[in-house]
Design brief:
The protein has helices spanning 5-15, 18-39, 44-60, 71-90, 98-103, 112-124, 127-138, 143-150, 154-171. The protein is an all-alpha fold and 178 residues long. It has 2 domains: 1-95, RNA polymerase sigma factor, region 2, helix turn helix motif (Rna Polymerase Sigma Factor, Chain: A); 105-173, Winged helix-like DNA-binding domain superfamily/Winged helix DNA-binding domain (Arc Repressor Mutant, subunit A, Orthogonal Bundle).
Length: 178
Amino acid sequence: MELTDADLIARVLADDDQHAFGELVGRHQSSVRGLLRQLTRTDISLADDLAQETFIRAYKNIRSFRGEARFSTWLYRIAYNRFREDARKRKELVGVDEELLQAEHDPQTVDPGLRHDLMHALNLLPLHERTAVVLCCQNGLSHDEAARVLDIPLGTVKTNVLRGREKLKRTLAAWAPN
């Protein structure tokens, strides 16, 4: 029987079980890295560095996890905060690296041209809309969970997702079936 996130967290808290935390990392690292890749505009090395720092912070601060939201929501919040700290240090966001974008393969998007256009369209969105769209539409968070991650009102998340999706539809209209 597979242990739940709550079971693994309990083991980490009770016994400082690093293997249990390793299992949590294994379960959530892809989605955390995916979020950070979207936020960093596909800078893979920066996203991976921020993801590693996210999990280090999560391990150090796991006692502050209150269980009021899913563990993944708590991780996304840490990742988003880490991204914002890095962005403030850099004072500008990283641009798209076309070669890395072409080299990356996403099993959910079969057509590489569509994937390229989608990534480009996402990068055209303002950061607040892009972040809300990625959290809700790609990572499957509810609007309420995204509001917790971003520490903004629920209505703002809903507006950002709606506006972001509308802009994506307009930008990607050429891909619509005839």
